Amino acid sequence: MNTPISTAPARYGALAMALHWVLALGIVCAFLVGWYMSDLPLSPMRLKLFNWHKWAGITILALSGFRLLWRLIKRPPADVPMPIWQARAAHAVHWLLYLSFFAVPLAGWAYSSAAGFRVVWFGVLPLPNLVPIDKALAEQLKELHSLLAWGLAGLVALHVAGALKHQFIDKDGLIQRMLPGR
Predict the structure, then answer these.
(1) Are 110 and 131 in contact (CB under 8 A)?
(2) Are 101 and 159 in contact, with CB atoms under 8 Å apart?
(3) What angle do CA 23, 28, 33 make, to 5 degrees?
């Protein structure tokens, strides 16, 4: 059974596309920097990467808030016809992605707070600590942040795999809705 076709626009708007691709790039870069820096010995480079990672996380958090607000205000394009289970799976992955866009940076921010390292966005704007300094809590939040980040990576992989399936197997044009141009 296919999902019904509505009168929603066939493509996402320019702002939605820009937010999608900027966040995609930011999330991939933040993940790779986090993965790389986690095994570095204490050094000026590791401290610099930690700051970049935090700045990226807070930027992702802020842009995600704006993206969610925009998504709630601006109706997305109608789903392309597909079996109902695929539509439900796609919607579930999308909402889990949105949840992760908030959970991962918030867990990282809380970890930094508990570890006693205040987040100063771009070295200019000091952000409040989310939790009191507590080394035991910091260890738990570090693990949570890592697990959530890997979960987000898995969701991103599912999202990309679904988009590629639609592009190369179904050939239904779904991926064109999020690509700039005509």
Answers:
(1) yes
(2) no
(3) 125
- The answer to whether the CB of 33 falls within 8 A of the CB of 114 is no
Report yes or no on 134 lying in a domain: yes
How confident is the prediction along the chain (182 residues), in pLDDT tens digits per residue?
555 544 445 899 999 999 999 999 999 999 999 999 999 999 999 999 999 999 999 999 999 999 999 999 998 898 889 999 999 999 999 999 999 999 999 999 999 999 999 999 999 999 999 999 999 999 999 999 999 999 999 999 999 999 999 999 999 989 999 999 86
Query: Which range of residues forms the domain containing residue 31?
Result: 14-178
Structure tokens at 96: 């889990």
Task: Answer whether residue 7 is part of any domain.
Answer: no
User: Is residue 51 within 8 Å of residue 44, measured between CB atoms?
Assistant: no
Task: Assess if residue 9 is contained within a domain.
Answer: no
**Total number of domains in the chain:** 1
Tokens linked to 13: 């708007």
Please calculate the CA angle 159-162-166 and round it to the nearest 5 degrees. Answer: 140
8 A C-beta contact, residue 11 and residue 176 = yes
What is the CATH classification number for the domain harbouring 50? 1.20.950
